Amino acid sequence: MATAENMENQIDSEMSFASALEDYLNPDMGDLEEGSIVKGEVVRVDDDTVLVDVNFKSEGQIPAEEFRDAQGNITVKVGDRVDVYVARKNEMDGTITLSFDKAKRMQLFDQLEEVLEKNGVITGTITRRIKGGYTV
């Protein structure tokens, strides 16, 4: 004979299973908006790719070239926190496209705008000559 306590435990168990199933089928993708910059953690580094975890279904894969310095060395290691740009996310299959370079460019542009608004001075190094001037 089922007691009230046993029935409550069974109902709680069924509700927990239903909740877990709902979470699995409709995962919370967090605040990852396409076009935003988010913090992520480097979880794997190899010669071709860097995997970054941004709390999505899967890690974002970024070409290792985006993390190389002038000497060709990869500048991040597993465990490092990096800012990345969310280029695209596909909630259906759980994939995400990230860019480290684009995040750096956007942050630099924001800093330049801030200095411009304050009539500040920016010092830079000319890296090459182009048709309309120079790249700094």
Notable traits:
136 residues; alpha+beta; OB fold (Dihydrolipoamide Acetyltransferase, E2P); 5-stranded antiparallel beta sheet; two-stranded antiparallel ribbon; 29% helix; 29% strand; elongated; NA-bd_OB-fold; S1_domain; Ribosomal_protein_S1-like; nucleic acid binding; S1 RNA-binding domain-containing protein
Specify the CATH class of the largest domain: Mainly Beta
CATH topology of the largest domain: OB fold (Dihydrolipoamide Acetyltransferase, E2P)
Q: What is the beta-strand fraction?
A: 25-35%
Amino- and carboxy-terminal Cα gap: 81 Å
Total strand count, please? 7
Number of domains: 2
Shape: elongated
Please identify the structural class as seen in this structure: alpha+beta
Protein name: S1 RNA-binding domain-containing protein
Organism: Mailhella massiliensis
Pfam families: S1
InterPro entries: NA-bd_OB-fold (IPR012340), Ribosomal_protein_S1-like (IPR035104), S1_domain (IPR003029)
Please, could you describe this protein's structure?
By secondary structure, the protein is an alpha+beta fold. The protein folds into two domains: 28 residues; 99 residues, OB fold (Dihydrolipoamide Acetyltransferase, E2P) (Beta Barrel), CATH 2.40.50.140. Helices cover 29% and strands 29% of the residues. It is built from two helices and seven strands, in the order H-E-E-E-E-E-H-E-E. It has a five-stranded antiparallel beta sheet with strand order 3-2-1-4-5. Strands 6-7 form a two-stranded antiparallel sheet. Strand 2 and strand 3 form a beta hairpin. It is elongated and about 80 Å long. The protein starts with a helix and ends with a strand. GO terms for molecular function: nucleic acid binding. This is S1 RNA-binding domain-containing protein. InterPro entries: NA-bd_OB-fold (IPR012340), Ribosomal_protein_S1-like (IPR035104), S1_domain (IPR003029).
